[in-house]
Structures are given as C-alpha cells and as structure tokens.
Amino acid sequence: MKSITLGATHQVVSAVALGIMRMDALTVDQATTIIDAAVGLGINYVDAADIYGGGQSSTIFGAALKQANVTRDQLHIQSKGGIVPGKRYDFSKSHLINAVDGELSRLGVDYLDTFLLHRPDALMDPSEVAAAFDDLQAAGKVRHFGVSNFNPRQVDLLQAALSQKLIVNQLQFGLMHTGAIDFGFHTNMQDERSISHDDGIIEYSRLHQMTIQAWSPYQYGTFAGVFLDNPKFPKLNAAMQTLAAAKHTTKSAIATAWILRHPAQMQVILGSMNPAHLAENAAGADIELSRQEWYDLYFAAGNDLP
Ligand SMILES: NC(=O)c1ccc[n+]([C@@H]2O[C@H](COP(=O)([O-])OP(=O)(O)OC[C@H]3O[C@@H](n4cnc5c(N)ncnc54)[C@H](OP(=O)(O)O)[C@@H]3O)[C@@H](O)[C@H]2O)c1
Questions:
Q1: Residue 2 lies in a domain
Q2: For site-directed labelling of 207, which of 63, 77, 167, 242 has its Cα 20 to 30 A away?
Q3: How far is the CA of 10 from the centre of ligand 1 (A)?
Q4: Ligand 1 test: best mutation among 16, 18, 20, 21, most atoms within 8 Å of CB?
Q5: Distance from the CA of 216 to the center of ligand 1, in angstroms?
Q6: For the segment 118-127, what is each residue's pLDDT rounded down to a tens digit?
Q7: For the segment 3-40, what is each residue's pLDDT rounded down to a tens digit?
Q8: For atom 4 of ligand 1, which residue has the closest CA?
C-alpha cells in the first residue's frame, strides 16, 4: 500500500483511507468485516463525522472496532464536527467541544488523532475556535487539527489564530469533480472554466503542507451517483476499462490511481461498505499512471485543453 506523509507531521499513513459515512447501514458484524478488510489491505486511516447517520455510523464503528483484528493505536482515527444538520454550521467553542466528546463516546476511543471542522461557518470567530482547539489538545482528546471544504483565505484566517498547524483539508476531488484543476489550465482566459471557484486550493495546500483528502472519489456532481459503470459516462468508462485491462486491474483502481498520480500527495477517502469493492478501489494505490495516461483520463471525463 502506497503511503503519504500527513500534512506537516512526520506521520506516514496509507494513501487511501476508510470513510465511514455509510456505515450506519451495516450491522456491527458487517462493520467488523469492513474494518478487517480495510486493515488487511494496508489501510490505517479512518474518517468519521459526528453527523454521519446521525451519529450511528460512529456508534457502529466503535462497537465493531472492539471485535476487529486491530488495536486502537494501529489506526489513525479522524472525525469531523461543526455542522448542526438542517440548521446551521456552528464553530462555537461549546459546540466543538461537545462534538468531540460525542464522537469519543460513540467511537469508544480516548482520543481522536485528528479533528476537522466539517464545513466553514460564516460566523466563525477564529479566537473562539483556537480556545476550543487548545482545550481539546490540553485534555488529550485531540492530537491534530484540520478543516474540510475550506478555501485558502478561510484557512489563513483561522490558522492565524491557532497555536496548532492545520494539517488536512478534506475536499471533493476525483475524475468527475475537477474544478480545482480545471481553472488552472484556463488562466487569464475569458471562458467559464477560467473562473477559480476555490482560489487555488490545491496550490495553496501544497505550499502549506496540508494534505488534501479527496472525498467521494467515484461520485459525479455532489452525491448525484457513481460514475463507475454508469451509462451516462461511456467515454470515461471505456478509457478506464482500456487502462484497467492493460494494467491487469479494475476501472475503480484506475480512478483511484488518477487521484494519487497528482503530485500533491493526496489521500483518497474510500466510502464503499462492500469488501470486494473496497479491495478493488484500494488496489489503485499501487497502480502507476504515466503523465499521458493521466491526461487521457482527464479528456475522457469530458475535459479538453485550451
Ligand atoms: N468532508 C465532506 O464534506 C465529505 C462529504 C462526503 C463524504 N466524505 C467522506 O468521504 C467518504 C467517501 O465518500 P463516498 O462514500 O461518497 O465515496 P465513494 O467511494 O465515491 O462512493 C461510495 C458509493 O460508491 C459505491 N462504490 C464504491 N466503489 C464502488 C465500486 N468499485 N463499484 C461499484 N460501486 C462502488 C459504494 O457502494 P458499495 O458500498 O456497494 O461499494 C457507495 O454507494 C465518506 O465516507 C466520508 O468519510 C466527506
């Protein structure tokens, strides 16, 4: 399993992680099977959030972890907070501390390796977040901090108030979600693709040693569906199939490898709750794509170059 260095830390972790957003649909035994499968594949990083399944995903994970063939310290366990579903984003100190306490209890662990702010709160007071982070770290409840779906200015604003270095920004990225690179090809042009929707977040993250964690790697749109084997994307599926046959692997492994080919050293968060799919998807971490293969897949996904 390919590994990456996590943000500005010296920690080496697997290049693909297990995301447990969909784990609420599983029994504890099924979740144990998924954890064991992930660990068997070399995955040592788990991504949770307090809102997944209304907290149920973390509860099931916590129960399954007790049965699985892995100890707590062999895993990097990350969770996210800061969303009150359907109501608001909430980075108040009390909300963040309660979010972590809730996750520690549901996951059945004493500490989170990393805690991420899930989506930017327009009412964020950086000094209040800093106070929450300091308390959480001093209490031994959280070791590292990061963000998710933040743009560079939002990271700057928050980082300026913190005593800890933000090490992660979790963002949607994959073959059918490439806005973060499209605009770079169209710099100083007047077409729609020249618009930077995220202010150069990939370049920013590389400069500031923040690991980009690519969420929903096989989805198109935002939760519109999976592009793998989807008749809406015949060209992309044909291109993935051709490469998969040449490299004796699967289409989903090619889609994973496409993300990992980017020199930003991203980490891919896999969301499958099917052990066979998980194995296929994770296999992409060991597939090398040439520069031309990477571009050919980008074209097959419906893109071109100026
Ligand atoms: N920060 C954020 O805002 C944010 C937002 C969304 C997600 N996330 C994180 O990202 C993780 C992954 O998100 P996701 O679950 O949407 O990612 P995903 O892996 O792109 O999508 C998972 C879905 O695709 C299917 N699938 C995966 N591999 C497949 C394959 N080889 N063949 C056929 N179907 C396949 C899965 O079904 P099966 O289970 O049947 O394989 C499942 O329905 C989440 O668990 C969460 O940790 C973060």
A1: no
A2: 77
A3: 28
A4: 21
A5: 5
A6: 999 999 999 9
A7: 999 999 999 999 999 999 999 999 999 999 999 999 99
A8: 215
For 188-219, letters b (16+ CB in 10 Å) and e give eeeeeeeebeeeebbebbbebebbbbbbbbbb
Residue 231, φ and ψ in degrees, nearest 5: -60, -15
Count of domains forming the chain? 1
* Residue 283 domain-assigned (yes or no): no
User: What residues make up the domain containing 50?
Assistant: 10-231+264-273
- 305 in a domain, yes or no? no
Cα gap 164→143, rounded to integer Å = 10
Burial class (CB in 10 A: 0-12, 13-18, 19+), 44: buried
Q: Is the CB of 255 under 6 A from ligand 1?
A: no
Which residue matches tokens 């090398």?
288
CATH of the domain at 101: 3.20.20.100
Sign of CA dihedral 171, 57, 145, 89: positive
Give counts: helices (H), strands (E), the chain: 11, 14
Per-residue three-class SS string for 127-165? HHHHHHHHHHHHCCCEEEEEEECCCHHHHHHHHCCCCCC
Nearest to 274 by CA among 14, 90, 4, 26: 26
Q: Is 301 inside any structural domain?
A: no
